[in-house]
Amino acid sequence: MPEHTADETAEPVGDYTFVVVANRLPVDRIENPDGSVEWRPSPGGLVTALDPVMRDADGAWVGWAGAPGDPPKPFDDAGVRLVGVGLSAEEVRDYYEGFSNATLWPLYHDVIAPPEFHREWWETYVVVNHRFAQTAAEQAATGATVWVHDYQLQLVPAMLRELRPDLRIGFFNHIPFPGYEIFAQLPWREQIVTGLLGADLLGFQRQGDATNFLRACRRAARLTTRGASVSVPGPTGDRQVRAAAFPISIDSAALGDIARREDVRARAREIRSALGDPKIVLLGVDRLDYTKGILHRLKAYGEILADGQLRPPEAVLVQVASPSRERVEQYRTLRNEVEVIVGRINGDFGALGNPPVHYLHQAHPREEMAALYLAADVMLVTSLRDGMNLVAKEYIACRHDETGALVLSEFTGAADELGSAFIVNPHDIDGLKEAFLRAAGISPREARRRMRSMRRRVREHDVVRWAAGFLKALGETPEQR
Ligand code: GDG
């Protein structure tokens, strides 16, 4: 129970001056054979990004524990108060798999897959967003800062402001915000815009995303914008809400340290030797998601092999595709398509003991990821649309010796920062093939030149700086801006 109230009539308030609200708690529930339950850190872009920030702050994290049913009782983990939000099986289906991952995700990624619009999904999205807002309101101390994350929770800022006008509310969108012609398809476009505008500051990955959002404010909600600010009418006059780019990053130093470890370097050598000591190792690391352009990458690689421009076993591709959203139909279809193409390439161009594609549909520990990055001569990031893409930055952070080459889609947020990569349009298969070959044949000198500037960028703009920049801007008054 909350211990104190702001006054006798107001909503009860909690103890935490910094509260993160995200769809998932940063843990997975593991049930041991003896029936005991433990919580393990779970991988993923957001978790990786916020971990160092939460360790420093005395904060609370509100999120869903990842399985339907009652939420776990609030508990402390590594100095952070974890507060679970419970979802029923139907809510997981309609709010998470449905509206979040089969409506918003494809819509916001430029309709690479067709979004589905269902009124029942929307209604559940509203109910669940309200539950997240209510839970956050119960945890936040008077005047606390609350940072809401991502497309699953776009109504939370306005709901939270309604419950707790004393809070300072930030929102960060990890995925792209689409152009208005696409966003306008959403039957609930106005509600989404006004939901987001409950925040004081809205952060996006790229300037283009912020610009798209400002346009949506004008078109869908008929509001006035000036520069990066939107005027939002409220009970006490207009509020100025700011929308700007805050490109997310990684904990570059921590990952760099892992990549320096002798056991990790030994593992990288072992990986190369297990692959048959090829001349060129190409690597893809993605959640198995249709936004990541895995099929385009495989098509280009298959054609390169067919043309004889790279010949296994001198060149091999390792594709890590970590399992993702397997209950959503489009993800099951994608898995089948990827596995058919991998099988075809291996069937056409492999020899006994020497498949040209090593395909791993598994999640791996961080050390193994670092070893894979170290083992790879060429990193392939070919997303059709991607808010940022942390994998690109992780590869760069691991390459202490300034070798290796990054092929990077122009449709990632990372492309705005990593201009020294081989920038590609993944829809242009000939262009992809050319970039793969140029990256595979790069001279040590050119690799060093490109890697050096990208490493500087990733080192200096790490996740701590990202979070600090966002929180500083959130703390500024309109006049200070
Ligand atoms: C969303 C946006 C944005 C992957 N497999 C394993 C594993 N991973 C880690 C990677 C990386 C993270 O997951 C994936 O992050 P990405 O940025 O590449 O992509 P999304 O998951 O789609 O993330 C994206 C991000 O949010 C942050 O804002 O950049 O645009 O779509 O860190 O290394 N980690 C481990 N084992 C795996 O098997 N340990």
Could you describe the 3D structure shown?
The chain has 481 residues and is an alpha/beta fold. A 10-stranded mixed β-sheet has the order 7-8-6-3-9-10-11-14-13-12, with helices on both faces. The protein has a 6-stranded parallel β-sheet with strand order 17-16-15-18-19-20, sandwiched between helices. Strand 13 and strand 14 form a beta hairpin. The radius of gyration is 23 Å and the shape is globular. The protein starts with a strand and ends in a 6-residue tail after the last helix. The N terminus is likely disordered. The chain binds GDP-alpha-D-glucose (GDG). The site of GDP-alpha-D-glucose has 24 residues, from helix 1, strand 15, helix 12 and helix 13.
What are the segments in which pLDDT stays under 50 over at least 5 consecutive residues? Answer: 1-9
Shape: globular
Please give the count of helices: 16
**Residues in helix, %:** 40-55%
Structural class by secondary-structure content: alpha/beta
The total beta strand count reads 20
Bound molecules: GDP-alpha-D-glucose
Radius of gyration using CA atoms only: 23 Å
Let me know the average pLDDT. Answer: 93
What is the beta-strand fraction?
A: 15-25%
Spatial strand sequence of the major β-sheet: 7-8-6-3-9-10-11-14-13-12
Instruction: Please outline the major beta sheet.
Output: 10 strands, mixed
Q: Could you tell me how far the N terminus lies from the C terminus, measured between alpha carbons in angstroms?
A: 38 Å
